[in-house]
Amino acid sequence: MATGSTLAGTRAVVVGGSSGIGLATTRLLAADGCRVTIAARGEERMTSVVALLAAEGLSVAWVSCDTMVEEDIARAVEVASEGKRLDIAVTVPGGGTPMNVLDYECDAFSAEVDKNVRPVYMLLHYAAPMMTNCGSFVAVSSTAAVFSTRGLASYRAGKAAVDALVDVAADELGERNIRVNSVRPGLTRTDSTARMFESPELLSRFLEQQAIDRGGEADDIAHAIRYFAGPESSWVTGQHLTVDGGHTLRAMPDMRPPRP
User: Which residues does 228 contact at the CB level (< 8 Å), separation at least 6?
Assistant: First the structure.
């Protein structure tokens, strides 16, 4: 198949597709011929992104979406599938607040776990029924899912839950030829990690725990997502691809804030 048409005729939704890893993924999918709908908050931001991609010769659609609101996720799937079929679903958002493990308020801890796993389940819940005959679902997890993250207990718990959900969904949905996988980024440059990259001390603490001495870029993660989304991985499901410069070969820096 000619370059730029590998995904011709397919439809995708990228939740969190207006910036960072999501935007890089949107660009790759669209460049390969996929009809991509980005779902995120901020109409001004999304219209700006659509215009940016149009200047690159890429046409994408957008829908306003709060990733924690079920009705918004359902509407995003409806728009992306055009009520007919969806081939690819990608969800990126998540996050956590650095804190000592005993210092979380109980409700705040639960809310942060939910912030990471709830959008994944909701997108799976609404996207999978629209994947007729086959489809690929890709969740952005984290290296935090697989080793201790001192100072980020809620984030690790949420991302570990994402990967556990991916395992079970892949096992159950394989009979419908729906593949479910996750990508585990290491420290990657995005809007949410900009301050970490701007701190030489913090960045050096991460890099000394990596085999490859550089931080990740959004494109590094997007290419892994693109692999799971496309026909190249048609016999791959229930897998978690770690893209981290070899960080998980060693250890996570201690992210705990100072105790009073």
Answer: 136, 138, 179, 181, 183, 236, 239, 241
